[in-house]
Automatic annotation (TrEMBL):
<keyword id="KW-0812">Transmembrane</keyword>
<dbReference type="InterPro" id="IPR025966">
    <property type="entry name" value="OppC_N"/>
</dbReference>
<feature type="transmembrane region" description="Helical">
    <location>
        <begin position="183"/>
        <end position="203"/>
    </location>
</feature>
<dbReference type="InterPro" id="IPR035906">
    <property type="entry name" value="MetI-like_sf"/>
</dbReference>
<comment type="similarity">
    <text>Belongs to the binding-protein-dependent transport system permease family.</text>
</comment>
<dbReference type="InterPro" id="IPR000515">
    <property type="entry name" value="MetI-like"/>
</dbReference>
<dbReference type="Pfam" id="PF12911">
    <property type="entry name" value="OppC_N"/>
</dbReference>
<feature type="transmembrane region" description="Helical">
    <location>
        <begin position="242"/>
        <end position="267"/>
    </location>
</feature>
<keyword id="KW-0472">Membrane</keyword>
<feature type="region of interest" description="Disordered">
    <location>
        <begin position="1"/>
        <end position="35"/>
    </location>
</feature>
<protein>
    <submittedName>
        <fullName>ABC transporter permease</fullName>
    </submittedName>
</protein>
<dbReference type="Pfam" id="PF00528">
    <property type="entry name" value="BPD_transp_1"/>
</dbReference>
<feature type="domain" description="ABC transmembrane type-1">
    <location>
        <begin position="112"/>
        <end position="310"/>
    </location>
</feature>
<feature type="transmembrane region" description="Helical">
    <location>
        <begin position="51"/>
        <end position="72"/>
    </location>
</feature>
<feature type="compositionally biased region" description="Polar residues">
    <location>
        <begin position="1"/>
        <end position="11"/>
    </location>
</feature>
<feature type="transmembrane region" description="Helical">
    <location>
        <begin position="151"/>
        <end position="171"/>
    </location>
</feature>
<keyword id="KW-0813">Transport</keyword>
Length: 322
């Protein structure tokens, strides 16, 4: 509360100084609410969006399926009995059985693990490598920026599907004898190698728009080092675009992994994934359409869930869309 002026004290003799200031502030409500940051404002907006809750619930279900598949399908997803080959859906097998007599429902549930693990690890690697290169390129500038930008242009010019086919055919061809971990590692590496330039460009543009801000200039004038400026000031203010893009990219990588597995150059048996199931079931789509429909339905739902979540986060973080 501000101090009353001398005139107000003289005009109301005998009154206490605080009495004259009371009418001025009586109609103004006093709020104890603290100012919110960017993430707090975004969370407040997200809580009001039904699309966010729908997509977050579906994603949580898929994550639980990937982490604890036995909770959803106690059956065997790898071994089967030929006596049940191409059996129709029943109480024992909700989605039916494939040509080798394996439970399709169990394979769909267990297939979420490979798809989600590959997508999440690929996104983390892409954000780490591309984000680091983008920060260095945008903050340093000069010949460093030019060199890293030209390297990114070389990788950016590679067609995604063709580049992935070349990489995986070279290191994961027929007769390679790779284990499950090696097969998944090669798919993850191929996705990272072909995707990091996009993240690098996104982070570079954010750094270029932020590094000349007043608080960055003030920190530099006060003697803050490069590491402190990047970690304490630049990085927190440049993460919003990467958070949105990373969320959408998880859904894109789930679809990319399924595409590569369908083409026979991605994940391979004994790994269970939705792309492998669609590839194996396409030959019997007329006899048993569920072999293609059920894994495809789970695949589309997972991709759309991450895309919808990314769109909701983008709208919450962008002040122009509020």
């Amino acid at each position: 509360m501000s101090d009353p002026s001398t005139a107000s004290i003289v005009s109301t003799p005998g009154a206490h100084p605080t009495d004259s200031a009371a009418p001025a502030t009586a109609g103004q409500p006093q709020s104890n609410e603290k100012p919110r940051g960017l993430l707090a404002d975004a969370w407040r907006d997200l809580r009001r969006k039904p699309l966010f809750w729908i997509s977050a619930t579906l994603i949580l279900i898929f994550l639980l399926m990937a982490a604890f598949p036995a909770l959803f399908a106690p059956g065997d997803a790898v071994n089967g009995s030929l006596s049940r080959s191409l059996d129709k859906p029943s109480a024992n097998g909700w989605f039916g059985y494939d040509v080798q007599g394996r439970d399709v429902y169990a394979r769909v549930i267990y297939g979420a693990r490979a798809s989600v693990v590959v997508a999440v690890l690929s996104v983390l690697g892409t954000l780490l490598i591309g984000g680091t290169m983008g920060i260095i390129s945008g903050y340093r500038g000069g010949w460093v920026d030019a060199l890293l930008s030209r390297i990114a242009d070389v990788f950016f010019g590679l067609p995604f599907v063709l580049g992935a086919i070349v990489i995986l055919t070279t290191f994961n061809g027929s007769g390679s004898g790779n284990s499950k971990a090696q097969i998944m590692g090669l798919v993850i590496a191929s996705l990272i190698v072909l995707s990091w330039p996009v993240v690098m460009r996104l982070m570079r543009s954010s750094v270029l728009a932020t590094k000349e801000a007043d608080y960055i200039v003030a920190a530099r004038a006060l003697g803050a080092g490069t590491g402190r400026i990047i970690l304490k000031h630049l990085l927190p203010n440049c993460l919003a675009p990467l958070l949105v893009y990373g969320t959408i990219m998880v859904g894109s990588f789930i679809g990319a992994e399924a595409t590569l597995s369908f083409l026979g150059v991605g994940l391979k048996s004994p790994v269970v994934s939705w792309g492998i199931m669609i590839s194996d079931g396409q030959q019997f789509v007329r006899v048993a359409p569920g072999l293609v429909f059920f894994p495809a339905a789970f695949l589309v739902t997972a991709v759309l869930s991450f895309v919808m979540l990314g769109e909701s986060v983008r709208e919450a973080l962008d002040p122009k869309l509020r």
